[in-house]
Amino acid sequence: MNPSTPSIKGLIKIHKPDQPIRPVVNWRNAPAYRLPKLYTENIHRLAPMPNAFNIKNTHDLPRNIKDTPLLPHHSLASLDITNLYSNIPVPETKTILMGLLEHELIAPQTQQEILKWYDVITGQNYFSHNKDIILQYNGLAMGAPSSGLIAEIFLQHTENTHTYHTSRKNTKS
Length: 173
Prior knowledge:
- The protein contains five helices and four strands.
- It is α+β, with helices and mostly antiparallel strands.
- It has one domain (7-51, 83-172).
- It has a two-stranded antiparallel sheet. A two-stranded antiparallel sheet has the order 3-4.
- The protein is globular.
């Protein structure tokens, strides 16, 4: 491996109005690339998430709802989060992860190690552009193998928390 600073490039989102630019960071040669990759594998093994509100691809939704009766008062929603990784609150997500590990009855020493890894990984938030090193102060590192999983931890917690409250309100009325 020839380590180098993660680099950023922009891809145009041709499917969106006004064609905004999607920043893409290449982490493959980053010095810390293997740690977030291993971290992601361990979290999936130790604390698998249910993905209760997610679909895997465009074919998954029709397959999942084909036998579900949809009544006139039902609504379907699809959420597209703008600037997802840079908007994930890293300290709050660490607290959520801590609760997830406790819920899965992970040994305290293993929990501490995973949370230390979390701090190291989420601290690797930099990339290069035009020979300048740029620090990303908020959210998760774009392109890091662990960012998708960490974002998913936060999003699933948010969905489970808010969907439960929303469904409870709707059943009372």
